[in-house]
Amino acid sequence: MSTPAGPVLDLLRERRRELGIESLAATLSQRRALLLRGCLIGLAVFGTAVGILGALLLQRAMTGSRLASLKEVASETEELQSRLASSRQRLVSLTATNRTLVTALTSGRSSSALLAELQLLTPQGVQLVGLDGTGQSLVLKGLAIDPYALIRINALLLQLRGSPLFEPEGVQLVRVERQPAKKAETSASSQQDTRQPPAQPGPVAFEIGAAFASPSSTEQLALLNRLGSTGMVQRFRMLQQEGLLP
């Protein structure tokens, strides 16, 4: 026999009414709605977290790639800096070598210009017997004859101090010494004469130290033109055209 349909007995209805709670069906419906809403919110939060995690992982991968690229760039930069430093050292060495060569090619102290200048500066009655160039200075040795041997030596000092090849303060008389007197030669006819001919005074030996000057290119060129050093003048002009001389 089937149970006759009728209203469902709800024993707690009175109690719910007292507590202000709706019916059980309404309560269950509300719970379902809240549960669904919570699930949706949870899914949204989970999806957001997954998205953030994915973004972080992607950013980490991109950062790692960038770091690897930066390491390569840093390595290349260090290599380029090393090459640049090596090139600078070679440039400094080449510049120093070029300057040395230019000085050797244009300096009057290492060419015939020095001898030509000394020939012009040496006064009459003075003979140069020694020439020794040691780095930045020159030592001259010579003989001066009488009369006025000391005056001739002083004239040579003044001439050297006025030359553009030497520093005026660097030209000094180092040594001066009278050489032994020479005996006069006697002829056969005068050998019977008991009187001895007077001895001739010996020459005065001297030594002069002269410090080389550093004249400008213009002064050197003027000096070479004055001395008639055509080859050196052409060399100067060629170096000026190449930009190796100021």
Task: Describe what this molecule looks like in 3D.
By secondary structure, the chain is an alpha+beta fold. The chain folds into two domains: 21-106; 108-180 and 201-214, Gyrase A, domain 2 (2-Layer Sandwich). It has six helices and four strands. The protein has helices spanning 13-19, 24-106, 112-121, 149-161, 217-227, 230-241; strands at residues 126-134, 137-144, 172-178, 204-211. It has a four-stranded antiparallel sheet. Strand 1 (126-134) and strand 2 form a beta hairpin. Helix 5 packs antiparallel against helix 6 (230-241). The radius of gyration is 55 Å and the shape is rod-shaped. The N and C termini lie far apart (131 Å).
SSE blueprint:
Layout: H1 13-19, H2 24-106, H3 112-121, E1 126-134, E2 137-144, H4 149-161, E3 172-178, E4 204-211, H5 217-227, H6 230-241
Antiparallel strand pairs: 1-2, 2-4, 3-4
Helix pairs in contact: 5-6
Keywords summarizing the entry:
alpha+beta, Gyrase A, domain 2, 4-stranded antiparallel sheet
Q: Could you say what the CATH architecture of the largest domain is?
A: 2-Layer Sandwich
- The N- to C-terminal Cα distance equals 131 Å
Shape field: rod-shaped
Task: Return the average pLDDT rounded to an integer.
Answer: 76
Going across the major beta sheet, what is the strand order? 1-2-4-3
The CATH class label of the largest domain is: Alpha Beta
Helix content: 55-70%
CATH superfamily of the largest domain: General secretion pathway protein M, EpsM
Low-confidence stretches: none
Work out the strand percent: 5-15%
The biggest beta sheet reads: 4 strands, antiparallel
What number of domains? 2
**Helix/strand structural class:** alpha+beta
Compute the gyration radius: what is it? 55 Å
- The sequence of SSEs as H and E is HHHEEHEEHH
Q: What's the helix count?
A: 6
- Provide the CATH topology of the largest domain: Gyrase A, domain 2
Number of separate strands:
4
